[in-house]
């Protein structure tokens, strides 16, 4: 699903114009990005949580030349799905076994 597909689904949900739907979707994404940039975590019940993880500097290798390359420390976004989302994606594993 692309952002355009998501905008289209929001538009079909109610009496919204495509422009209104674009604003809603962009606002949600911008809010998530702004919260992560400021170091906050986002928790959406029933969906999951977004956090920032710190990656330490390390020595990597250029796959083409094999040359050693210093990879600097960086912050990366991390998403952890909720148990409910995992169960919805894997319905067979969520059902209790009948033994």
Tell me what the structure shows.
With 99 residues, the protein is of the alpha+beta class. It is extended. The model has no long low-confidence stretch (mean pLDDT 92). It has four helices and five strands; from the N terminus they run ααβββββαα. It has helices spanning 3-13, 18-37, 83-89, 91-94; strands at residues 42-44, 48-55, 58-61, 68-71, 74-81. The chain has a three-stranded antiparallel beta sheet with strand order 1-2-5. Strands 3-4 form a two-stranded antiparallel ribbon. Strand 1 and strand 2 (48-55) form a beta hairpin. The protein has a domain at 1-40.
Q: What topology does this entry show?
A:
Elements: H1 3-13, H2 18-37, E1 42-44, E2 48-55, E3 58-61, E4 68-71, E5 74-81, H3 83-89, H4 91-94
Antiparallel strand pairs: 1-2, 2-5, 3-4
Helix pairs in contact: 1-2
Quick structural gist:
The chain is of the alpha+beta class. It contains four helices and five strands, in the order H-H-E-E-E-E-E-H-H.
Q: What multimeric state do the chains show?
A: single chain
Spatial order of the strands forming the largest sheet: 1-2-5
Categorize the overall geometry.
extended
Provide the succession of SSEs: HHEEEEEHH
The residue ranges in which pLDDT falls below 50 over 5 or more consecutive positions are none
Query: In angstroms, what is the radius of gyration?
Result: 20 Å
Beta-strand residue percentage: 25-35%
Number of strands: 5
Structural class: alpha+beta
State mean pLDDT (0 to 100 scale).
92
The total of helices stands at 4
- Helical content band: 40-55%
Terminus-to-terminus distance: 39 Å
Largest sheet, if any? 3 strands, antiparallel
């Amino acid at each position: 699903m692309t952002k355009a597909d998501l905008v289209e689904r929001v538009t079909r949900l109610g009496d919204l114009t495509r422009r209104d739907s674009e604003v809603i979707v962009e606002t949600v994404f911008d809010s998530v990005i702004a919260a992560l940039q400021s170091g906050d975590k986002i928790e959406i019940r029933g969906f999951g949580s977004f956090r920032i993880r710190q990656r330490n500097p390390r020595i990597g290798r250029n796959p083409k030349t094999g040359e050693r390359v210093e990879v600097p420390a960086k912050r990366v976004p991390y998403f952890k799905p909720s148990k409910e989302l995992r169960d919805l994606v894997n319905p067979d594993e969520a059902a209790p076994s009948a033994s």
